[in-house]
Amino acid sequence: MGHRVLVIEDEEDIALPLVRTLEREGYEVHHVESGQGALEHLAGNEADVVILDLGLPDMDGLDVCRRARESGYEGAILIVTGRAGELDRVVGLDYGADDYLVKPFGLAELQARVRALLRRTVATAHAAALPDDALRIDPAARRVFAGDVEVVLTGKEFEVLSVLAAHRDKVVPRERLMAEAWNQNWYGSTKTLDVTIGRLRQKLKAAGVTDKVVAVRGVGFRLEGGDGGS
After folding, report:
1. Has UniProt tagged this entry with the keyword Magnesium (predicted)?
2. Deepest in the core among 110, 156, 161, 163, taking most CB within 10 A?
3. Residues 48, 65: contact at Cβ < 8 Å?
4. Within 10 A of 116 (CB to CB), how many other CB atoms are there?
5. Which residues span the domain enclosing 191?
6. What is the pLDDT of residues 123-160, one digit of tens each?
7. One domain, residues 107 and 137
8. Can you list the positions of beta strands (E) in the chain?
């Protein structure tokens, strides 16, 4: 089952393309049009990411954000809104949001924000349960540790590892790794990815990490082994 996304948006011309785009990415998407509907859904269902519009018909989205956090929701919250003022941004984050996207926005940018939030959420969710010598990724600080020892990675090595860790034990296609670690407009040789993977493997092995980056011929790469953390 893919990651679960709750879309809270009352404007159909915005919600429908957004839902279709996320479903094509492999997410399990549920859509509601009101704040109360969102809170009721979260009370009985899990969601990894909430995409929250502030201008809802029954209540302010900031109240939805606050009440969701007070009720114990620990997943990521991405606010989307037409309120572009700096004060609104600060207030939204103070209410418990993780990120903020101003309308109008491109679907590609929103997808990138969701992927980044998922990487951060997955890493945080597993961190507390990891043994002392496990591979640990700190997305906010962009640092990687083997137990208490830091594994020094380049920016691209970190991005590749983060994407693989977010999809642990699943194959990530080469094209997706290139798109997320570099960008969708990269036209260079895919050997760049192979070189990066090679360096990443060497550094993880040297640090004593039991997790391995495994190549799946003709498809992509998979992070496996270790204790299942990230």
Report:
1. no
2. 161
3. no
4. 18
5. 129-224
6. 555 544 445 557 888 887 888 888 778 889 998 899 99
7. no
8. 4-8, 28-32, 49-53, 76-81, 99-102, 135-138, 143-146, 149-151, 172-173, 212-216, 220-224
